[in-house]
Every structure is written in structure tokens, then in C-alpha cells.
Recover the amino acids of this structure.
């Protein structure tokens, strides 16, 4: 809820709330029969006392606009409009029959981040303001009077695809032509298109355990059976893919080979080659997710699976979100022409392509002679954040928290040396104004959490870790 | 295919083509076993003679990289890499099992438009460069150093939702709060989200006949049964909805009440009220598509269904595509809170929200004190285009082509006074450098076509109609 009552106004808070709810009911935003938020939810959202909400509800109830249903809560009265309206669309039923929603903890995370400016956010994989090249971006004029702002080529602006093709070649040794690249709304949409168009309900696939994919409801929304491929300190055992294939006939494997989210693991070249061989042998499609393989802090170079694949078994997915800014919403998929053609057709059906403006901006930025300098600064900046996060966690929690030091990327995957009450720790952290990703949303093993240090300004990291440590201590006391 | 051989280069064309195809095969863009484009397709795409492509294919075949399969065409050789690779992912199968693709004629339209700058395009519903407020847009700085370019609120930038809420109130008398608005990638994505999240396979709905919805494969991709609701010169007969409900238990009806696409029809107030009453009575959801209800050329005001609905039976879908520029990719849906919450969650899963940059630009434009002037210019500009199109068609074709004159919007729906060979007319038009929307893609009745005059610069309309008339005459001769 975006609206908040204004505390200084002459009209008492509860009256403001009444008139707000009334107008929403009359606008059809809360249709007859629909449920209103609970007193507690509403008090939280409007940042008022629960008693204020209670008074407002009681007044609304006395006018007959809403009613109280045991076991349900406050609902908009159906009979206000006369009995013949009882057959209004049953929105609750519509909504419940729909998609799988996000993990409740993830929903909470998004909600908290949206409601609060002061929360320190170690939960979302994006770049902090001090890593985004704002000066560069501000100096880019996306277009001029000659530009065309009609529908862009659905596959993506050609100049942008050229820049991305060059970028992949220069930074990742991936050879491609522009025709085999589809621009998407971040890597997210690329994955969504792959799942929706190349798999069908009942198909089996493998995802990493732990992995970011583990947290994504889109697989189950599409009726896909996900099988877990262990990701450990040694990376992935390629033979596990064979086993999953023989047992479940998996059709795809989703792999994040470099600085994996969340473990930070890099598969070694032998593992990568073996994975490609096995998938080629069994006809398993590899979906390679590569959001930040170029963000290594050492001089080691990390090959993409795609760079090792000449037979078109890899669908390569990446984005500019962690390279420039996630607000651009520029990602892409590169793969066999037949797949790109199909996904382009579907993208036309579902959203008619990406906005032309961020595409023009991204093109200019990728082609700027300051791009390479930006990348160097970005990597240095991430290393500083990693070092600081690690130093503070070690200093404050010592052996209570364990991790492998990631050599690149944006995540720190931590394990507690003992059992923790995850939900309690999460709640205490939120109370303290800091948020992280609970481990159970990312994998099957308990007592883990992910700190995504990329999203926090460096001068806020100490504050953030301090808040977390306090939450940790109070959760420990309470449990 | 974006690449073209360069005719002046010392290397012969066929050798350039060989090395291009070789690299695409080795990149995995044409994996072993996959089909290459036909000689004719490739010659068309690369703009070379078919004999040149033939030579290139023969050379590639002699190296063993590709092979010729009777009834299939040229395919990449599977055995090049050894027999054990025969179990590579069968992309053809993947692709065929996927979504319903666009109508072949529509696919051709998109392809032609993409390949040719000189084609005059009466087929796509967007604004021509002379209607897009480029000067206004060029003067907008989307952001400054203080802006946040991380992930935007998935529901959409709050300031943009405020501007849209005010816009709906001022221009369409629709009352709403920002919380009940979700920003989408044009109206297209709003419809996609509704279909995917609120309906399930096997559900029945009603769409107009003719209507733009008729051309959209997303209904059938989702397994929805579409039933036709006749749209005639008198609009829609509300009782037809009752009939469809009793016969098929339709769950939703997709209605475009003002300046309908393609007929240009406006439902009168009595029809609108009756539709709302019937849908309220039977619990049928109304999806109101309203891309251009404010673009009336007369002083008549046209109510939105949403403005007449206080019970939340209407999901209102609109966009800035025909108001500012389709390249922005800004649309929205306004409806009951429970629906908006669900669709927001799903949007987060599938694309993580719209790019922040066009959202900031759209906000500034909607709030600009020149916005109203732009709208007035837009309406005047559209009226001029309509008048010119009608005048020329009447002058050139007289009674052979019939239409009702639309009082607003962007389309002219024409009927021939006699039988036409639609495919032939379409092909001849393409040859002549003009494209329109064939009537059978939009409705069940033959001998119609849609001219979308909004997308053509006024100084090109005469040229476009001339090209069309020539195509029409030559198609008549040939059939």
C-alpha cells in the first residue's frame, strides 16, 4: 500500500483511513466479498497503531460497508449492493488457482525493501549506487530527434546485439553472430522463456543445490519436476548428471559455472568439459547462467561453458544487471538459431520486446572507451566489499560462522557452526534494519545464509554487519 | 539474419557466405542435425541471387559440413563430430512442442518490416515519427546522479503510478489508487499476465469478432477456448454475452469498447451499462482494453467501462504506446487489489519489472505542462491521417471498398464489395512496398482488411495508398 495517512493533518488518522478504504472499496479495488488486510497488516503498512486501524474498521462496519467473518477477517459486504450481486467474479478463487507465488520469506524481503529506505540490503543481487557508473550513464544521450521510438526489433536493437556479441567475444571468448542473440528483460526473462517454451509440464530438469534457481517458483509454476544436483566445495561432480539422467530422464540442467550463486564456486576446466560431454552424449540441454563470470578478483580466467561448446548444447544466459545496473533490464540469451527464433516469436506475443531507450543507453555504454575502466573499477569495488564483509564477520562471530572466500562474483555463502532458528534470525534482522537471504530459500541444507555484498554501499557494510550481529545475538538468546 | 555479404569486397559473395555459415555452424548456432534456411530464404535474407547461395551450399556440402536430405533440405551433418553425438538435444522437437506461434501472415509482416526501411506500414498499431513528441522527449533528462538505477519497485515506479492514476482520473473519469495499478510492458504484457495467471487450460472466454484479440496466439498457447462475440456496426449486443455464458460458461470477456480495433466502433452508454450488469450477474470478468479512448476526433466523450464499475468486475488495460511512443514499453493494468498483488508477484518471477529509465521519462512527460498540448496535436494529426486515407481510397477505388468512418482511434476497417484473394493481394502489396493487416487474421469474415493510418507519416500516406492500389489492381488481374 503506497498511501499513508498524514499525522499532522486536522482530520484524525482513523478518519483518513476510513475515507481511503471507502474510496478503494468504491473503486472496485476491494470488490464485494473480498478480504481486507488484517488489523496488524494494515497498521504495519500505514505505520499507525493497531488501535487506530481497529477504530476505522469498526466505523466502516457500523456503516454496513464491511463485515466481520469468523476465521476470515474483515470482508467487503456483498449485500450492500443487493443480493443479486452474489455472483460477482470470485477473485479469491481466481487468484488461488493461479501461479505458484514466491517463497513467503522472499515475498517478505521484497516487501520490506519496498517499504523502507533505511534497511541495509544484503539480500538482492544488484549493484549498490557506489558501483553503478552513474556519471557515465548521465552523460549518455539515449537518442536524438532522428531516433525512432516506435516498436523496436523484437529480438533487440541490432547495435546492442552487435555490442553484446563483441563483449562476449572480448571478455568471454564466446563466438556468436547477432542473429543468435535475443535481448530479454534481464536474465530472469531469458530463463522464464526457456522454461515456458522449451519444456512442458511433467518434464524433469536438474538445478544446483544450493542455487538461485532453487528459490525460483517459475519451474513449479510450469509443472516442471526439479531434481537437485549437489554443488559443494569441489564444484559439481559431472557423474551426478549421468545419475540424474538415468533416474529421471532430465531434459535440461541449469548450471552457473563461475562464481555460482550462492556458493561462489568456480567449476574447473575438467569439470566443465566433462559436463559438456555428458550432456552432449545424452542430449541434455545445458542452460548456462553467467551473470558475473568476468568479475574475478584474481588473474585466473574462467571459461564459459558456451565457449567450450561448438555443437549447440548450451543456451547461454547473461545480463547487464550486475555489470552496469539492474534498472536497465537488459539481459540476453544466445543459442541455436531455431531456439532464438521461437523465443523471439513468443516474446513478441507476451511483451513486444524491450524498451528502446535502455537498449540505446546500454549500447552507448558498452561501446564507450570508458567501459573497460568501469569494469576494472567494478571488480576492485567488489573485492573491497568482499574483504570488508569477511573481516567484520570474522571479527564479530569468529568460528560461529564459516565460509569459503569467493574469488569473484557478488555473494558470500555462510554456514553456521551450530543450529540456528532461521526464521527468528530473519525477523530479528528485519527489526534491526538489515536483510539477508535465508539459506533454506536457496538450498536443501539448513543453517546457511547468503550475504550479497554487491548491493550495499561500502560505507554501509560495517553498519549492516553490526545490525546483523546484534540480531544474531538476540535471536540466539530468544531461541 | 542481420548479416549481409558486402558486394564490393574482393572476396566473392559465395565465399563470404560460406565462411559466415561455417562460423555459425561452429558456434553451435546451427547445431548438428539442424536445418539450414532454404536457398530461396537465404537468398532473400542476404539479398543475393539464388545461384550464389546454391554455390555456397554445394561447397559446404563437398567439405562434409552440411548434407542434403530429401524432403528436409540442407542440414548440418551429424556425423562430422562422430556417431556418438547423435543424441544431441533435438532442437526441432523442442521447438515444435513449444508455444503456438504467430499467424504466418503476421510473422511475415514482422519480418518484412524488420528487413526493409522503405516499406510503408499500415499494419502495426503504433505512432508514426510525425506523431511522437520527440522534442519533448529529447528535452527530458530521465535521471541525475541521485537517481537509483537498481531494481525498481516491481509494481512500477511510484511517481509513474501516481501520474497514471491522475491521467486516468482527468482524461477518463476513472478513480483509482496507485496500489491498484501494475506497470507492464505495454498492454500486451498485461493481457499475457491476465491469461496466464487468472485462467487455466480448458477455460472458456469471449473475444470480439473481429478484434485484435482474434489475432493473438496467447489464448490458444494457454489452452483457452475462445468464443466469438460479434462486433457489428451497432456495436455489441449485450445479450450475446448471456448466450455465450449459458452455452460455454465463459469466465472472461475481452472488450475494447471505444474505437475498437479494428472496426473503430464505440459502444453506446446503454450497451456499456448492460454489459456490466450482465457480467456482474453471472460473475464474468470484463477485461477492458482501452488503448485510445481519448483519441476521439469529435467532442463526444466516451466512458470507459471501468468508470462505470464500482464492484470490481473490470480489469482495465491501457498503455502509453499510442499516446507517447510504443518504444517506451509502458502499459498498465488497474483492478482489484488481490489481482494486482498476484500479477505483481508473477511479474517479479518472469522479468523483474520494467526498466526504470522509460518509467522516469514517461512520468516527466505525463507531468509536463505540454502534455495536454501534445494530446491535442496527436488527435488533430490522427484526424488528418484518417481524412487523407479515406479520401484517397474513395478516389482510387470508389465503391469497390467500403468502410464506416471511424470517429477516433487509429484504424480503418475496410470491406471489399466483392471477393478478393487475400493472400495474393498481400503478396502483391509486399512486392510494391506497402503492408496492411489481412482481415482473416482479425476476424472470421472474409474480404476485409485493416489500414492502421497512425503509423504512417502524413507525407507518406498518398504514396502508400498508391502502392496499395497498384497491388490491388495487379492482384485482381492475376486472380
Amino acid at each position: 500500500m503506497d498511501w499513508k495517512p498524514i499525522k499532522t493533518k486536522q482530520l484524525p488518522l482513523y478518519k483518513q483511513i476510513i475515507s481511503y478504504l471507502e474510496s478503494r472499496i468504491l473503486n472496485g479495488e476491494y470488490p464485494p466479498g473480498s478480504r481486507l488486510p488484517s488489523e496488524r497488516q494494515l497498521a504495519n503498512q500505514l505505520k499507525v497503531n493497531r488501535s487506530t486501524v481497529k477504530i476505522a474498521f469498526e466505523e466502516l462496519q457500523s456503516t454496513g460497508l464491511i463485515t466481520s467473518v469468523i476465521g476470515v477477517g474483515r470482508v467487503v459486504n456483498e449485500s450492500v449492493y443487493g443480493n443479486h450481486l452474489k455472483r460477482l467474479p470470485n477473485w479469491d478463487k481466481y487468484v488461488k488457482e493461479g501461479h505458484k507465488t514466491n517463497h513467503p520469506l522472499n515475498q517478505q524481503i521484497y516487501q520490506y525493501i519496498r517499504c523502507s529506505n533505511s534497511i541495509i540490503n544484503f539480500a538482492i543481487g544488484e549493484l549498490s549506487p557506489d558501483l553503478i557508473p552513474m556519471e557515465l550513464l548521465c552523460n549518455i544521450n539515449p537518442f536524438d530527434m532522428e531516433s525512432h521510438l516506435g516498436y523496436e526489433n523484437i529480438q533487440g536493437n541490432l547495435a546492442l546485439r552487435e555490442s553484446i556479441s563483441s563483449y562476449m567475444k572480448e571478455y568471454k571468448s564466446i563466438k556468436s553472430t547477432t542473429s543468435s542473440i535475443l535481448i530479454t528483460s534481464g536474465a530472469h526473462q531469458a530463463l522464464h522463456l526457456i522454461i515456458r517454451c522449451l519444456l512442458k509440464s511433467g518434464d524433469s530438469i536438474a538445478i544446483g543445490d544450493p542455487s538461485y534457481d532453487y528459490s525460483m517458483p517459475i519451474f513449479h509454476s510450469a509443472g516442471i519436476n526439479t531434481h537437485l544436483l549437489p554443488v559443494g566445495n569441489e564444484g559439481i561432480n559431472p557423474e551426478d548428471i549421468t545419475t540424474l539422467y538415468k533416474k529421471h530422464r532430465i531434459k535440461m540442467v541449469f548450471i552457473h559455472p563461475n562464481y555460482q550463486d550462492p556458493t561462489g564456486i568456480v567449476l574447473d576446466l575438467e569439470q566443465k568439459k566433462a559436463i559438456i560431454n555428458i550432456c552432449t552424449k545424452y542430449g541434455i540441454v545445458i542452460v548456462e547462467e553467467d551473470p558475473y563470470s568476468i568479475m574475478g578478483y584474481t588473474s585466473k580466467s574462467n571459461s564459459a561453458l558456451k565457449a567450450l561448446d561448438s555443437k549447440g548444447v548450451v543456451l547461454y544466459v547473461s545480463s547487464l544487471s550486475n555489470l552496469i545496473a539492474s534498472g536497465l533490464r537488459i539481459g540476453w540469451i544466445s543459442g541455436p538459431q531455431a531456439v532464438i527464433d521461437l523465443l523471439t516469436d513468443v516474446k513478441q506475443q507476451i511483451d513486444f520486446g524491450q524498451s528502446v531507450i535502455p537498449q540505446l543507453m546500454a549500447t552507448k555504454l558498452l561501446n564507450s572507451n570508458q567501459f573497460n575502466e568501469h569494469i576494472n573499477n567494478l571488480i576492485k569495488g567488489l573485492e573491497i566489499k568482499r574483504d570488508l564483509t569477511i573481516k567484520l564477520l570474522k571479527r564479530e562471530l569468529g568460528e560461529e560462522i564459516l565460509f569459503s572466500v569467493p574469488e569473484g562474483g557478488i555473494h558470500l555463502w555462510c554456514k553456521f557452526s551450530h543450529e540456528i532458528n532461521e526464521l527468528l534470525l530473519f525477523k530479528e534482522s528485519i527489526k534491526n534494519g538489515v536483510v539477508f537471504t535465508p539459506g533454506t530459500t536457496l538450498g536443501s541444507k539448513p543453517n546457511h545464509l547468503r550475504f550479497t555484498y554487491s548491493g550495499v554501499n561500502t560505507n554501509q557494510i560495517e553498519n549492516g554487519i553490526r545490525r546483523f550481529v546484534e540480531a544474531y545475538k538476540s535471536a540466539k538468546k530468544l531461541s
Remarks:
- The longest strand of chain B covers residues 204-209.
- Residues 80-86 of chain B have pLDDT under 50 and may be disordered.
- DSSP finds 16 helices and 15 strands in chain B.
- The two ends of chain B are 33 Å apart (CA to CA).
